[in-house]
Amino acid sequence: YPSELLMQKITEDNQIPVHIHVSVSLQYVAGLKGRALVEFFHSNIAEVENEELRHLMWSSVLFYKTPSVEVMACVLLSTKAIYFLLDDSFIHADEHQSDFWNKENSDCDNSSFHLSCCFVLKLNDLQSVNVGLFDQYFRITGHSADHIVTCLTRDSYNTHTFIQQLMAVLSLLARTPSPEPVDKDFYSEFGSKNTGKMENYELIHSSRVKFIYPNEEEIGDLAFLVAEKMDGLTNLPSLNILLYVLAFQVNHFEGSAQNTSSLQPKTLILTSSDLFLFDEDYISYPLPEFAKEPPKRDKYQLADGRRIRDLDRVLMGYQTYPQALTFVFDDVQNQDLMQNLTLDHFGE
After folding, report:
1. Residue 193 confidence (pLDDT) above 50
2. Which strand (E) or helix (H) includes residue 213?
3. What residue ranges in 226-344 does DSSP mark as E strands?
4. Could you mention a single GO BP entry for this protein (predicted)?
């Protein structure tokens, strides 16, 4: 340890997405290669001498205690824990959460250069992993509200790779086996499900960590919600969700010293007749077992919706991934103008 193959893989993965701006401290981490990266992990991050770094990933993350603040993090998976190296802008942007980030430990605020918070989630404390729709994100749940983190990979490949690596590492953990299941009779097996709702697909790992995947009903619920937002303009059976993707909406600011743009996280949903942007809660659903009350906001909140028939053109940038798309819609105030003209001119 470490093998050449592992060092090559970690070096390749150690790249900050080009559209994300991070602090100097994280840029330093992203500049490390191969053995230097492994040594950095052991000398600055690792909590146990004999743990091995197995996987590295850059991802946006959300914490259960601060659901409105999305921050870039370098996610490091070892044989003992999952480490989140966080951009220091997160700590300053959310200072009212003083109970979450212990201020006693931030004694390096006056330093001109420092590595910011490292959040640690030990594998022994891990209880479940919820995979989001179409593998666009996943949520890691520990034993309390402080130990719930969502990784917004916005990439099914990154999600799949991390889950595979996590399962492999969990297989190394020595946990006491679960007690033998009690044989159930037919009636208790099938009579207790009074929820009337199909459970999500659960895979219980040998380490007793649950991996929970969405079922078909989640898409059905989403289609129903979308149909509601369309004010009954379409009948539900014919409504098909063609695309669900986590994206960013670009807000461009002109006139400043330099033209800048901010990225607003959005969920883009495409149906056969409409294009929708939703503000989605990626961290609160499904409710953790210890939650005493439902979240303050719904899982999906409509931010914008346009009819495909009003789409005039789509502009594509020439840059590599991530691709920027601009949708240009006809700016018609009254969407049913033509229909009204027909009635006015040719009606009795």
Report:
1. no
2. strand 210-213
3. 241-253, 260-271, 274-280, 300-307, 311-316, 325-329
4. Golgi organization
Specify the CATH architecture of the domain 4-104+112-174+196-212.
Roll (2.30)
Beta bridge partners of 314: 327
To 10 degrees, the CA torsion angle through 337, 338, 344, 348? -140
Query: Which one of 3.20.20, 2.60.40, 2.30.29, 1.10.760 gives the CATH number of domain 216-329?
Result: 2.30.29
Domain boundaries, the chain: 4-104+112-174+196-212, 216-329
Instruction: List phi, psi (to 5°) of 231.
Output: 55, 35
Q: What are phi and psi of 294, to 5 degrees?
A: -65, 160
The DSSP bridge pattern shows strands 128-131 and 210-213 to be parallel
- Bridge partners of 74, per DSSP, are 58, 85
- Rounded to whole angstroms, the Cα distance separating 230 from 115 reads 47
pLDDT of 201 over the 50 cut: yes
Residues 86 and 71: beta-carbon distance below 8 Å: yes
Q: 74-118 pLDDT, tens per residue?
A: 999 999 999 999 977 666 655 555 455 554 445 555 555 555 688
Cis peptide before 288 (omega within 30 of 0): no
Q: Is the pTM of this model over 0.90?
A: no
Domains 4-104+112-174+196-212 and 216-329 belong to one CATH topology = yes
Tell whether the torsion through CA atoms of 337, 339, 340 and 344 is positive or negative: positive
